Amino acid sequence: MRxxxxxxxxxxxxxxxxxxxxxxxxxxxxxYLLLIGVEIEGRSMFQLLF
Amino acid sequence: MPELxxxxxxxxxxxxxxxxxxxxAFVAALISEILLTIQPRFLRGFIDQAQAGLGGSELWVxxxxxxxxxxxxxxxxxxxxxxxxxxxxxxxxxxxxxxxKHCRQQRSELVQYSMRSGITALADLAxxxxxxxxxxxxxxxxxxxxxxxxxxxxxxxxxxxxxxxLGLTLMSTIRIGRIGRxxxxxxxxxxxxxxKGGVSAKDPLERLYAYDQARFSLRSVNYFLFxxxxxxxxxxxxxxxxxxxxISLGSLASTFLFFSMLQSPYLYLIEMLQxxxxxxxxxxxxxxxxxRGLRLxxxxxxxxxxxxxxxxxxxxxxPLSQAGKTTTASQVYYDDMGQIGExxxxxxxxxxxEVLRTLLKRSRxxxxxxxxxxxxxGRFAHFxxxxxxxxxxxxxxxxxxxxxxRLLRMAGDITPETDARGKPDAS
Lengths: 50, 427
Description:
The complex is a heterodimer of chains A (50) and B (427). Chain A is mainly alpha-helical and 50 residues long. Helices cover 74% and strands 8% of the residues of chain A. Chain A has 2 helices and 2 strands. The longest helix of chain A is centred in the middle third of the chain and has 32 residues, at 6-37. With 427 residues, chain B is mostly helical. Chain B has a 6-stranded mixed beta sheet. In chain B, helix 4 runs antiparallel to helix 11, helix 6 (61-102) packs across helix 12 and helix 8 (152-196) packs parallel to helix 11. The longest helix of chain B has 45 residues, at 152-196. The mean pLDDT of chain B is 82. Classes of the chains: A mainly alpha (50), B mainly alpha (427). The A-B interface holds A 1-4, 9, 12-13, 16, 19-20, 22-23, 26-27, 30, 33-34, 38, 40-41, 45, 48-50 and B 14, 24, 28, 31, 35, 38, 41-42, 44-45, 49, 54, 58, 61, 65, 68-69, 71-72, 75-76, 78-79, 82-83, 86, 90-91, 93-94, 97, 149, 301.
């Protein structure tokens, strides 16, 4: 669509994309800790929860 | 509902031009929901492990995980909301630009209403239908799935109650909306009749009161349904426990948390339905004008640069006679210079040809749309609008209809390059 400043819109989207990847990296770390990284009495957190 | 989709198709098409944005927003919101819905499971684990006598230092892991999940959920929700906001702003901006450019509405209060809130609400509605409804339903289903993991019987009972409750609330909400409109219309009629004088307002006002009572009863029904679903149904988990079902205290606590989590998407869904029906019915005031503008804008931006001839008597845009004088470079004109025939005076033909030549020159920088029934335009225009609204070249259209010979005869020697006497154009 026309009529807006494409540079500003691109910057806004680029920041969002950056946050997307950062959050995704955080999610992967969280899943690693949940599935493998943390163990209580020999069982992973995931096994404790489900 | 299919009618709603059919009528909103032009706006949904604009939203669907951003599939990657929509997918990114949807996936981010879904991840956020999963991370949020998992929280009661952590609480359940915490309570059960504490009861089993797990050491204090190891119990700290649970709140740490809950905090991590909450922070990630917040980040993903922010991303989803920000993409939604970005899309809504772009859509509203585009619609407002088109509306202002091609709007034929003369009543200033209507244009003000459209620009202040109407178009933004319509853009919001289009985005809600494309994204938010789906998200809210998936959120409800996610919570119900987690609830079923705790106790499948309770999960099933909640699913049935929630579906019934949503259906009934939707029906009564639609009726409340209709009654609201009737009250608004009747109030206007009563005021008009009273201002004209001689009419007693007592009976009509009593009828209004009856409508208001009906609205109150319907609202009470909605609240009763909410009470059954979110106040009474959760207690069945306690009854289940008292009857000796093998559920832990942690499971009981998480069940209650799941019930309280269900409330927000449920209420949000109902609010959204209420807002949507309002926005949709109010948009009828300007939608026709806006959609005509959208179609026109689409044609102007899709065609290669040139003069587009719309063979209608439509009187939108600026008069053709002003095309040579005005400094505002309008993109839409209508023919007010009369139809040129074989018996037309030479001066009239020359004046019109001159204006058309000016328009033709301008159309090489920016496409111009001209409404006219005059065949003379065929000698100047590059494109014409076919019967189904598609653009085609003037030549192909004329050859198809066998109009070419008639046109050449009627327009004589006038072409964009020559004047009315057939001499080369000096400009």
